[in-house]
Amino acid sequence: MKDVTQLTEGWSLRHGEELLDARVPGCVHTDLLAAGAIPDPFLARNETDVAWVGRRAWTYVRRLGHDSGHERTDLVFEGLDTAAYLTLAGRPLGTTRNMHRTYRFDVTGRTGELEVRFASAYDEAAAVRAVTGERPNVYPEPSQYIRKMACNFGWDWGPTLVTAGIWRPVRLEHWSTARLAEVRPQVTVAEGTGRVEVRLRVERTERGRDRRLRVTAQTAGVRAEAELTGDETVLSLDVPDPRLWWPRGYGEQPLYDLGLTLSDDSGPLDTWHRRIGFRTIELDRSADEHGTGFTLVVNGVRVFARGVNWIPDDAFPSRIAPERYRTRLTQAADAGVDLVRVWGGGIYEDEAFYDACDELGLMVWQDFLFACAAYPEEQPLRGEIEAEARDNVVRLMPHPSLALWNGNNENLWGFRDWDWEGPLAGDSWGEGYYLGLLPRIVAELDPTRPYTAGSPWSGSWDHHPNDPAHGTHHSWEVWNRQDYAEYRATVPRFVAEFGWQAPPALATLRRALPGEPLAPGSPGMLHHQKAEDGNGKLNRGVARHFPLPEDDFDRWHYLTQLVQARAVAAGVEHWRSHWPVCAGTVVWQLNDCWPVTSWAAIDGDGRPKPLYHELRRVYADRLLTLCPDPGGLVLAAVNQAATPWRPAVTLRRVDADGTTLAEAVVEPAADPRSVARVPVPGHLVPDPRTGREFLVADAGEAPRPGGAGSGEGLRALHFPVPDKDFAYPSPRYDVTLEPVPGPGDRVDVVVSAQTLVRDLLLQPDRLGPAAVCDRGRQTLLPGERARIRVEGCGPVAVDAVEAALFCVDLG
């Protein structure tokens, strides 16, 4: 039977004349940081002080010895970052040039000092560029010439920290006769029967070349067996009436163990185990009167995808433990998310990521790793890219959460709109990968899943790649140039990227910028703002709605976070209200890889921004929204639940002083997985000329005057004029604290409004770095109460809570 020895201990990193202790998996930066040789690059402006690390060659060493009675010993690296030359006892072992592949070297009978010498990624990229010629890139870095995490070279939310190292596990595998070299389970469901076709390939030793082998497969109580005379075979298992795997919100996520055993007459030789799920996944790209659709269909049910874009959760991915994946993805699920797009400038994530998605019901949209650049299609890159794609399709395909393969991020769009055609002058740029190589690989290895050539992509060159009427669309004009109200100008078929920036939590800023007086334009704040004219866009976004605070950082911080939440909500509410024409929104982005001002809902220290709580509201199964449409104001009842929804919605036209000017009850009828749209009666539409009127829509237990009602109902608001043009009263409210019995450090903050209080927000980290609360912005009418539960703050006084509360205040 094969046995495995993990090689996590005993590694050293050569640093000049020193040998530093090295952690494997890890990288040069984390080892230097642990040794005190560099400052923390996430703090202050240290990133620039450690830039030299990425431009040097580095060597990892370890004594390799093994005593095995097996015929063969393989040294297996799950990830080497990136261009490496390996020697064992001074003799060549092999070379690598791809961060995203697994490498296997035969070291049978060989011992001695193992050296893994990493070239500078810059040097490797320059050598490839000299062969292929120049290609355009959105960023002035050589990411397209090396198969490495592109955002290592910096992005408009990420630091330039170019890593090297043994970033995934390394092991010795000792085996005899044969081993399971590749296993591909293709899982389908038809007419109530689940079928698992297990396609496998074995590798044999010389002595095992003519040996008769036997393989058995078992899942859900069904067993299949086959004899191998060659190196490949297929086993089929038919499972009657399997429980289906569903995205969260649509059903449960049952998982079945699938196990394989390879044997010969002497007994078992090798085993393989994964968890699978039975479901069908299709992508409906049918043409209709609105253009070309892009709708995911799971088990025959059409799904509006409530998505987020995922970037590597740390600029040093080797630090992301399974528990951290679980935490971050659980946060996504708790926010109502049912789809996570793994963006093409990062990595194919660890198994722990996909395991968590399997269990949480999070569909995974997996990009192949190409982003925002023209990629040469010549050697040595082409062979690497094919091997990388095959490696990762085979590795990831057992996961039922994996729903879609996507060829690239924005490169088809870039070719058309970013002035690439002239400089390319006919040179290759990646089209052959996205429209040729990659779809062929997916069709060959993983035919049960759909593939799309890119994001955005209209489906063919017959339409502009980012045409909102066809396929996937990236909506960035709004953030870059317009007010967020302009999200309502179009109804794309599927919004695969859109977003709005905001700074991270105050506690995150204080940790990242120690000792710096915080101001929007302070040196550290500007260093941790990577977007082009990022602060200018933030300020213009605020100024369209509020007087821009000149010298009040706390107010600026609140308003930028508020506008981020409002902007994303405006897009999601509008697009969800137009289901099934629009079939999904994927917010840019869920997470950050370091402390930075960005589009993320959860900042680089793992703290939720107000946007996170807004996602919980707008991604809930049931959403009430007031939508300004060209034909007039519309109330939309969005029902993604499996049961009908017939809410009695109270519409009130209200004056700024809280007086109800007109009132009516409407009852939209939303069938399961549908939207009911009801015109707002004319006498209830606020008159913008007064600058005092707004509309409130309440369904369920909304926070009514006098404090009656739990506040757990649904509320929608419509203010017809920008905040700076509305006659807000000076906000007045009372704050009381109510300790919460039971385990944990919890307190309820109860806010009682005396006036209209717009967008009340508690920033819990101001009460303590570990404090969290259960909700984001809320608007209260006079006499209403809000209850906010805070955990992890320790003992607090009312005045501290009052200092952590913000609301719209134009006084």
Automatic annotation (TrEMBL):
Domain of life: Bacteria
Keyword hit for Transferase: no
Enzyme Commission number, as recorded: 3.2.1.25
Residues spanning the membrane: none
SUPFAM superfamilies: (Trans)glycosidases, beta-Galactosidase/glucuronidase domain, Galactose-binding domain-like
Keyword Hydrolase: yes
EC top class named in words: hydrolase
UniProt KW keywords: Glycosidase, Hydrolase
Domain Glycoside hydrolase family 2 immunoglobulin-like beta-sandwich: 187-279
Catalytic activity: Hydrolysis of terminal, non-reducing beta-D-mannose residues in beta-D-mannosides
Xref: Pfam families: Glyco_hydro_2, Glyco_hydro_2_N2
Region of interest: Disordered: 518-537
Domain Beta-mannosidase-like galactose-binding: 11-168
Similarity comment text for this entry: Belongs to the glycosyl hydrolase 2 family.
Protein name, as recorded: beta-mannosidase
The organism of origin for this protein: Streptomyces rubradiris (Streptomyces achromogenes subsp. rubradiris)
